[in-house]
Design goal:
5 helices, 76% helix
């Protein structure tokens, strides 16, 4: 499977699966070749990573459940 467009990246949650190491080596290679040519995808990867880090920080502090119940 070659990563061909933004809809495929979003629809198949490629960024999230990439960061969670849930892609096959072939898809990783295709995705990395794609994002090397598209700086916007790199920014999206960084945003998803920051979101995951922020949620983990809230969970570590015990603040996540309180925010979720609001």
């Amino acid at each position: 499977m070659a990563v061909v467009d933004r809809d495929q990246i979003d629809g198949e949650q490629i960024i999230e699966r990439y960061l969670a190491n849930q892609l096959s080596p072939t898809v990783v290679q295709d995705f990395e070749a794609h994002y090397a040519k598209h700086p916007r995808v790199v920014r999206d990867i960084e945003l998803v990573l920051r979101l995951k880090e922020g949620l983990a920080t809230l969970a570590d502090r015990g603040e996540f459940d309180g925010l979720r119940s609001r």
